[in-house]
Amino acid sequence: MMTPSISLQQSKNWLSVTNKPTRLYGMDRFLCEPNSLVLNSSTAFHFSQTLSYTSIHALPILALVTNSLILLVVLKNSLLNRSPFAVYVKSMAISDTLVLVLKLISFENKTSKAFYWPSMCTVLIFLSDASTLLSVWTIVLITVERTLVVLFPLRIKKFVSVYCAQVLIILVAMLSLMFSTRVLFISIDISPEQKKRCHPISDWQNYRQLNATITEFTLCFIPLSIVIIGNCITLYTVKRAAFRRHQNLTNHIYHRQRYSETNENQLILMLLMVTLMFMIYFLPFTIVNVISRWGLPFDLCFTQKSFEIYLIIRSLCEFLKDLNFCTNFIIYCISGYRFRYAFFSLIHRSHRNRLLFNVRYSKNTKQHSGNI
């Protein structure tokens, strides 16, 4: 009995149609034996399919729920809504939701038997790229702002204001839309001979590869470097300032400064959480992209077994990357005391209003029955 297997070329065709995260495009040049490679359908191939399907269909629902809660908490709390923090939070909540929802729509456009619009291929990629750019570079704005505040504390009003945050978000949104228009020029092959959906015309293949390179740098390499460097500078500066003040202040004055140091400790915790989660989500995905572009170091090549392991790792890395767009609510609740307090206050107020409504409804019902 033969074991079911899929050749490299067959897997290329099927994966390009279904847009799975285990695409083999361009990876055959890093294989030890490209012509003899087969994928075991019971292990790596099935795992990547299942994880990809779960990510594409489940994460948009999670993003809609969590990001809606973020918007609800911020908009219902006047103190949070008036802060520059709220501008960035609302921007990320909206853009993160759009990223995953547009990914789902694009997947259905490529795989659904009910409908297929070739004209929507580039439009969906354009909107998805713009939303992702807005989300990622909003994190960069937060990092740069926190770094400037720590380095220049006497000029905090110049860097931290609602107006400044709104202007920056509008500029980033406009630049994201303008920068993403480059994908609209790609022509889709709609000839009857072309069996792959949303596949560009052969004359546009080089442009498509160039566009993929630009996307990797603008969404992974450059933002990740800025976030890591900015947060390292911020953490080092805050810790050094806190240590010097602790050495210079007397015990009496130190007790008076405990509240400010508590706020500093919370700032350090939030920055650590943001940096850690951003690295957990994007650093593995960035490393996998480097491997897919330049191959393994020391001129090593993939065997069949190692390539299956690579497919599993790549699927996990892309899943982690997508989690970045639907887990901010959990990060805010863990690291932000004010946000957590506002969330529980909203729940308590909603529960109290429901109880009052039930009491009033029961009273009105009794009065109505008594009159009858």
TrEMBL record:
It comes from the Eukaryota. It is a multi-pass membrane protein. It holds the Pfam family 7tm_1. Residues 66-332 form the G-protein coupled receptors family 1 profile domain. GO terms for molecular function: G protein-coupled receptor activity. It is found in: Membrane. GO terms for cellular component: plasma membrane. Keywords: G-protein coupled receptor, Membrane, Receptor, Transducer, Transmembrane, Transmembrane helix. The chain crosses the membrane at residues 56-75, 87-105, 117-142, 163-185, 214-238, 267-291. This is G-protein coupled receptors family 1 profile domain-containing protein.
